[in-house]
Amino acid sequence: MVYVLLAVVIVCVVVFAALATSRRTPASNDSVADFQRHLSALSPEARRHTVENYPVVTSSTEETEELDDGA
Amino acid sequence: MARDLAIDLGTANTLVYMKGRGIVLNEPSVIALNRQTGEVLATGHEAWHMIGRTPGYIVAVRPLRGGAITDFDVTERMIRLLLQRVGVSRFTRPKVVICVPSAITEVERRAVTDAARRAGAADAQLIEQPMAAAIGAQLPIDEPVGNMVIDIGGGTSETAVISLGGIVALEAVRVGSFDIDNAIQNYVRREHGIAIGERTAEEIKVAIGSAAQTPDEVEAEVSGRDLMMGLPKTVVLTPEEIRYAIDDVVSQIVQSVVRCLAKAPAELAQDFLTRGMYLVGGGGLLRGLAERIETETQVPVRMSQMPLEAVVLGAGHCIENYDALKRMFMGQRR
């Protein structure tokens, strides 16, 4: 019984220690990393993938112009 | 699992970008309804062809005006049909990013997000059109330099200065290319005594409309209904007449660009002179508009490579990088 309690206490201590370590990083560092991630997602290289890799369907304006009956 | 979507819900056209696929839908924001039963009869191109040519029991409407929802129920049904057409079902509910004019009110924002959620979206986030346009137009908005984008849509014209991924200055007016069409309709009615429809006015704008004199100008014959006799009548319109007819609307757009330049920090003025401003949106295709803005602001104006798709491509980039670009969404900025 004592060993079981001891094991539970050890597990709890390890979990709390892990949580405390993960939360120790200052919030300012998080915000810096977050902002850098935001800017790198907006970089021309990151955006090129979205703009160039996918086909664009025919625009409706082109179709409208084709239908233009000579106003 | 549904693929997430970006929607440019414009007054004139609606474009849908699907994550991992690109632009999957591009059609006019028009819906045709049975006036008596309320049934949807057509949407998009099919409904656009019906404008002004329907029997009494059918009405073809644009559910958005000035970038805002004017008929909530119709807009919700249009979004539901759009989502169905791109493969969204009752069991697959995607995240949706919707582009809206920056000047819309809190009530109008809620109307858009509610319409999208009720139409089947799991989550609906909004992004300002000029910000999405700047992302889609490939401007270097991640750098600490002034990027200026002018987005002229069907119902709104917005000018924004963007630096380091955020909006520095913004100016929006609820005037767009539909106001240019209206001005042409009113001019022809007043000066020539004939009534023309919305689509004919748009065709005149595309054929001979301009904001400044251009080298290869031609005249155009226009047919409508004589207001006195009620009979069909044809008149000839000149480009000068159309320039005069739309001058008030064009001036409002140009003045909003000037106001935005005045709002921007002095440090960025040098950037505008060297990098210029970028025009996006269908309204930006009006002949001579870039030259007119350039003349009145003394800042170079360049046309974006994909003026009609820039906004939805920008929103599409946000859906591709949803977590990294969360702070782009309206109401999410810290």
Automatic annotation (TrEMBL), chain A:
Region Disordered, annotated ranges: 51-71
Biased composition (Acidic residues): 62-71
Name of the protein in its database record: Unannotated protein
Species name: freshwater metagenome
Taxonomic classification: unclassified sequences, metagenomes, ecological metagenomes
Automatic annotation (TrEMBL), chain B:
GO molecular function: ATP binding
SUPFAM superfamilies recorded: Actin-like ATPase domain (SSF53067)
Annotated transmembrane regions: none
Main location: cytoplasm
GO BP terms, alphabetized: cell morphogenesis; regulation of cell shape
InterPro entries in UniProt: ATPase_NBD, MreB, MreB_MamK-like
The keyword Lipid metabolism is annotated on this UniProt entry: no
Compartment(s) of residence: Cytoplasm
Gene3D superfamilies assigned to the protein according to its UniProt record, in alphabetical order: 3.30.420.40
PANTHER family: CELL SHAPE-DETERMINING PROTEIN MREB
Family from the record: Belongs to the FtsA/MreB family.
Protein name (database record): Unannotated protein
